[in-house]
Amino acid sequence: MNILSFYVSRSYQFLRGEILVIPSRTIALLLCLFLLFFPLISANDFILRVLILASIYAIFAASWDLLSGYTGQINFGHALFFGVAAYTAGLLNYNLDLAPWATIPIGALAAVVAGLVIGIPCLRLRGTYLAFATLAFPLILLGVVSAISSITGGERGFSGVDPLAGSRVASYYIVFPSMMVLGFIMWKIADSNTGLIFHAIREDEVTARASGINTTRYKLLAFCLSGLFAGIAGGMYVHFMKVAGPSTLELLLSFQVIIWAVFGGIATIYGPIAGVFILYPLQDFMLSRYLHVPEELTMLIFACIVLIVLLFMPQGLITWLRDKTEKICPRCKLQNVATRSKCRVCTADLD
Amino acid sequence: MAENIIINGLVLSGVYALLAIGFSLIFGVARIVNLAHTAFYMLAAYLIYSLAVTAGLNLYLSIFLAIVIVVITGMLSYRLVIARIRQHEATTLIVTIALAVILQEALLKGFGGTPRSVPKIISGSTEIFGVAVLNQQILTFGIVLLLLVATWLFLMKTRTGVAIRSTAQDREVANLMGINVPRMEMTTMAISAALAAVAGALVAPLLVLTPGMWTHPLVMVLAIVVLGGLGSLKGSLIGAFILGFAENLVIFLAPSGSYLKTSVALTIMIIVILIRPEGLFGVVFEEERG
After folding, report:
1. Do A136 and B266 make contact, defined as CB atoms within 8 angstroms?
2. A265 min Cα distance to partner chain B (Å)
3. CA-CA-CA-CA torsion sign (A328, A329, A334, A335)
4. More confident residue, A312 or B284
5. How big is the A-B interface in CB pairs under 8 Å?
């Protein structure tokens, strides 16, 4: 009983001291709670479908951020991980009747292997070369997948994969909490020592190596981790859509993930997640359904929104908002509301 | 079979070479990865269609107008959009993709998704070594060669060309030597857009136009410049011929070749950069001063 009250009071203190003092964190918490209990308010199949897909893409965009935002290894072919996992999970389920709880991890492992396979040759490349070389891998696989249509269903893909769960709401309660947990894990990784080393590799690889860091190993680690999370997203996607098709490997998806991540703000993890939750519903239905934009103009307006936002906030929307509403204490490096003149913990002057 | 491979290979490689050199130029001079490059090529093809077929203008006049409009579009998008965010590398990528998507969607809105075709500049065919070759193909290849030589002469022999090359080598020193760097970047952007527009004008009669026609050339151009070495014009030229012919060989010789053509071309690129990470003729860029 004592222990219980101890934890309750600790979490209450944490809530008051770390979350409620900063409006952005409060809003994020409220949004998470709202989305968590959303099916109780409305079980509209269509909205749930959009939210489920947004969660899947959020994991995917955050995994791109872990690799490209933190380590600076710009990956133009991130759809490779998604597609490899989607096809692996789909084929295993379709041909061997393995359940989703088995196929998704196996698909994610396949994506980790894909991360190693493209990570090792790409270690020698940097910058723009790396970006263009990674672009090639999903397209190579796409050609192969289309050519062996007897196994993969060719350009139309194959349907008949088992659904993730019996009902839409159940799927939602699998995907959305997984998104929160995986997002939290990625955020913790990015915040840990490993994440610091990723930062160092992006900022100056030579200096990082001179400081005794095996940058090769860490870059491969970044490829594998990123592949793991993107693979989980890919596996969930194929079981949710019940179709494995070439759209999971297409150039558009690779570009899309970069658009989401950069729009939200790279090297933050929460930026890409927020980016997906803002942009995906917008491009999927909000423009045409609520703002009465004709269907054929949605993509045009979507591209214009992305263009205009990035022109004025080149670092990304969420990063821009964060910099406007928060200040970092120069002494203890904690986040403070921009209106404060003294740090909330160490009372140092905030400039 | 062999003659088809050679003729189509030459034409396709020539067009890729024009696109890749334009892309390489603006990357070398301004360090901008312009993913909207092939969208300019598509825009030119569609402009010719709308001016010549829909508005009924003279074909030569509409080609000229199309090139001018594309160059203006290119310069405006550089001045108004790309120049503002170019120091953020990832943002540049997204913004240029957004530009390409805007062009694609505008064309889709204007012309619909139905494939369109443009009349040939010259019709008929000529027999060379017993093989019938479309006159349009000969013209395309001839103009490509002419333009490549002209670009080379321009860069090597004229004052502006030398200024552009020195800006590509070292922006700051070029600036100190009295070269107007922003103007050189603008000029390069104009040349690059013009090369893309000419490529569009040349292939428009040979292809069907769809608003999605920019993605495949974009992938190939990226592969070509990496294969040849970023910033190297010679590399882009040779890369274009290697991948253009590889694509045609696969289309004609391999089973289900049209699916595999991109895969094979990209695999060649991967193999080359595995052996030589800076591409065939890559210039290793010094770390830029901060």
Report:
1. yes
2. 10
3. negative
4. A312
5. 125
ipTM of the complex: 0.84
3-class SS of residue B134: strand
Q: Is B226 close to A132, i.e. CB distance below 8 A?
A: yes
Name the closest residue on chain A to residue B267, using Cα atoms: A140
Cβ neighbours around A274 below 10 Å, total: 23
- Cβ within 8 Å, pair B109-A300: yes
Nearest CB to A139 within list B87, B108, B262: B262
Model pLDDT for residues A59-107, shown as the tens digit of each residue: 999 999 999 989 988 888 999 999 999 999 999 999 998 888 999 999 9
B-chain residue closest to A301, CA distance: B102
Q: Give pLDDT tens digits for A181-227.
A: 999 999 999 989 999 999 999 888 889 999 999 999 999 999 999 99
Q: Do A124 and B263 touch (CB under 8 A)?
A: no
Q: Do B101 and A299 touch (CB under 8 A)?
A: yes
B270 vs A136, A142, A314: nearest CB: A136
Predicted model pTM: 0.89
Do the bridges between strand B131-134 and strand A158-159 make them parallel or antiparallel, or are there none, so unpaired?
A: unpaired
Buried b (16+ CB within 10 A) or exposed e, B51-70: bbeeeebebeebbebbbebb
Q: Could you give phi then psi for residue A267, rounded to 5 degrees?
A: 60, 40
What digits encode the pLDDT tens for the residues A299-311?
A: 888 888 888 888 8
A201 and A219 in contact (C-beta within 8 Å)?
Answer: yes
Q: Which one-letter amino acid corresponds to residue A105?
A: P
**3 state SS for chain A:** CHHHHHHHHHHHHHHHHHHCCCHHHHHHHHHHHHHHCHHHHCCCHHHHHHHHHHHHHHHHHHHHHHHHHHHCCCCCCCHHHHHHHHHHHHHHHHHHCCCHHHHHHHHHHHHHHHHHHHHHHHCCCCHHHHHHHHHHHHHHHHHHHHHCHHHHCHHHCEECCCCCCCCHHHHHHHHHHHHHHHHHHHHHHHHCHHHHHHHHHHHCHHHHHHCCCCHHHHHHHHHHHHHHHHHHHHHHHHHHHCEECHHHCCHHHHHHHHHHHHHHCCCCCHHHHHHHHHHHHHHHHHHHHCCCCCHHHHHHHHHHHHHHHHHHCCCCHHHHHHHHHEEECCCCCCEEECCCCECCCCCCECC
Chain A residues 95-134 within an 8 A CB cutoff of chain B: 121, 124-125, 128-129, 131-133
Residues of B in contact with A137 (CB under 8 A): 266, 270
Does B90 sit within 8 Å of A136, measured CB to CB? no
Percent of chain B past pLDDT 90, that is, above it, reads 41
H or E stretch covering B139: helix B135-157
Shortest distance, CA A41 to any CA of chain B (angstroms)? 36
B258 in A contact zone (CB under 8 Å): no
